[in-house]
Amino acid sequence: MRAVQFGAGNIGRGFIGAVLEQAGYHVVYADVNQAVIDLINEKKEYTVLVKDVDCIEQHITNISAVNSTTEAVVDEIAKADIATTAVGVVILPRIAPTIAKSIAARHAAGLQQPLNIIACENAVRASSQLKEHVLSHLNEEQKAYCTEWVGFPDCSVDRIVPPVRTENPIDVVVEAFYEWNVEEKSFVGEVPHIAGMNLADNLIAYIERKLFTLNTGHAITAYIGKLRGKATIDESIADEEIYAIVKAAMQESGLGLVAKYGFDKEAHFKYIDKIIGRFRNPYLKDDVTRVGREPLRKLSASDRLIKPMLTAHEAGVATPNLLLGIGAALHYSNAEDAQSVELQKKIAELGLEGAIKEVTGISNDALVAEIIKAYNEIE
User: Fold this and answer.
1) Which tens digits make up the pLDDT trace of 57-92?
2) Cα separations (Å) of 226 from 220, 231, 347?
3) Contact 209, 265 (CB under 8 A)
4) Which homologous superfamily does the CATH classification assign to the domain defined by 2-201?
5) Fold classified for 204-378
6) What pLDDT score was predicted for residue 333?
């Protein structure tokens, strides 16, 4: 069995690629970082260091790597059983032409073998987004072949993989917890049974549960932590004021999810407590600047701050703490983050109200006024 994993970064190596390798696949990493590619091909192994209450090591050996800008990756996808991504949702349009070229090659060769492509990104229906990008590069015959033989199952992914330096540059530190839920009905051909991959029916509920619980809480911990001079997530959540706001914000988001999907409230609140426990993991020295990066994306209408606040409002849930998190995100200032620089420029040029409306897509004046109030309160 053969898998191609786009993205040989920490998440690619420490989560998706590792799960596939442990399930018996030869994993081919496709990346633009030639130094990482060379190290993988030279060493032919790396270690996943699971750091939690119990620390264990997983040795990943059935691997190779190719540069994702070369023809080699086209050849690899052409003979793969499964392809996955961990590149960031904004990069999906860039890898789509390569995937399309591989599908065209499979079609030209008359290959009647299923290929399932799973975009493992922090976004709603990332595989469906990737599929649209891929189809735009195929002709009608190739599209018909793609429909018959290529699946794009959507998924939700959850594992904290911080950029911890290790003696071997391709070793990676991860938390013990992980969750990979994949939409069963969207597979083409026989559904692979991969240890660590959970087959799901109502995937959108899983995606929003994760995105609007873990990612919401993670982002708010980072943004308020940055305002309060904290360096890491575990340091931030150890602050009682920050902890209280983060937990309450996650519960506000949770009540919206309970109303929308019928989750059991008590079970969901226990899920929140479990996630906060993950934030406290002292082994995961996750910088607030990493978690808070790209604030324009994180403040967009469908992402981890605005969407759960709106969902909660629709359910009649008050969201004072989610609003504080949004206010803190609007304060995020990091000269090394292009989106942060652009955000602060928008606030300076458009005024806070104008910037909020443009960045979040919210036009309701009363709601914008609430965000402004929270912005001033959290400062």
Assistant:
1) 999 999 999 999 999 999 999 999 999 999 999 999
2) 10, 7, 18
3) no
4) NAD(P)-binding Rossmann-like Domain (3.40.50.720)
5) N-(1-d-carboxylethyl)-l-norvaline Dehydrogenase; domain 2 (1.10.1040)
6) 96
